[in-house]
Amino acid sequence: MDIQSLCVKSYEFDKTTQPHQLPLYMSSSFEMESTDDAIDIFTKKKEGHVYSRYGNPTIEAVAQRIADMETIDLDAQGYGYLTSSGMSAISTLIIAMLSKGDAVLTQRDLYGGSTELLRKVLQRLGIESIAVDLGDMGQIEQAITEHPNIKMLYMESPSNPTMNCLDIKKVTAWSRGKGILSAVDNTFCTPYLQRPLTLGADFLIHSTTKYLNGHGNSIAGAIITHHEPYAKQVWETLKLVGSTCNPFDAWLLANGMRTLTLRMDRHSQNAMQLAQHLYQHPKVQSVNYGGLVDHISHDIASRQMHQYGGMLSFVIDGDIEMAKKCIDRLEVATHAPTLGDVDTLVLHPATSSHLNIPAEMRIASGIADGMIRVSVGIEAIDDLIRDFDQALGGI
Ligand SMILES: *Cc1c(COP(=O)(O)O)cnc(C)c1O
Fold first, then answer.
1. What whole-number distance in Å separates Cα of residue 184 and Cα of residue 182?
2. Where are the beta strands (DSSP E) in 58-192?
3. Atom nearest to 160 CA in ligand 1
4. Of 184, 292, 319, 359, which has the most beta carbons under 10 Å away?
5. pTM given for the model
6. How far apart are CA 275 and CA 74, in angstroms?
7. Tens digits of per-residue pLDDT, 69-96?
């Protein structure tokens, strides 16, 4: 063989010894052993891989692990798909399950990107969205009477950044009774803290970018269900829309997930201690954290979550300028527009995630000018408390 051909030739490597850690299959396609073999794989008579948009061993292993965690206390098989982001998980799921003329029933305080997707993109394609207070069964009943085309209920609990919870069991029991599909965004909780399928949901999605990865170095999403026909429908859409995850992001996610339970325990412990500390701080007006007994959602959170998680928000006794100054003074915590990383992150909703929402509407939905959202990390709690004390002390 000429040296030019030798350079180009695909590599031979040991396929017989099982690697202890999940290998990263950075390969767009897979070789066919024979033309007959190819037909069997294409027609699904035989297991195998063809092309990474359809399936890839690294991606599938990670997707299945999340599906297994989400169905751990169900007597059912879980099906999971990884997507290129949390947003692509949401859009792929809705495009897979809904058609022109159908409507999604959802809440007003959804993740900002999800609201925009529904209003700006899906609306244009003929999929309507109706936002009500999903904590009020009267409003839910009224919505279905007025919009018989509602085909999916889409919810998020706890919500961002007020940490309000919805009773997933109650709302999904209602939707099931009406023949409406239900989907829950489980990003804030991960399957360690809350399992929406067990609570009655048909689907859940994740932005794995957040807690599941935990290290802030990969963007991906997941769609999970325990209904086989729906899983097939999702996969058919996913492979054609092309919202497939990148194997490298899946591999980074696999690494992050190994320590999920340890991280979530520590996130929850630290958040509880920081919430309690801020609660009695003279410069803090209020704290939103499900673990605090006087939080509006304390009862629901205690019932449906195993711990209260790492997200909280608090309102300083001051205006926008003071909130910005507090954030700028923080040294241990970093100002960054993500959440769920191992280190503590803060965000000022009024000037970032909720900047485009008119002030009166924003304040009416509980997002005050002085609100600061905290994704509490796994640092030593004393360092965090000292940091917030010095930042608040200087405003
Ligand atoms: C970040 C986030 C998303 C979107 O996920 P991406 O990975 O950024 O696309 C959706 N829902 C929630 C609750 C999020 O926090």
1. 7
2. 79-83, 103-107, 128-132, 150-156, 181-185
3. 13
4. 184
5. 0.97
6. 33
7. 999 999 999 999 999 999 999 999 999 9
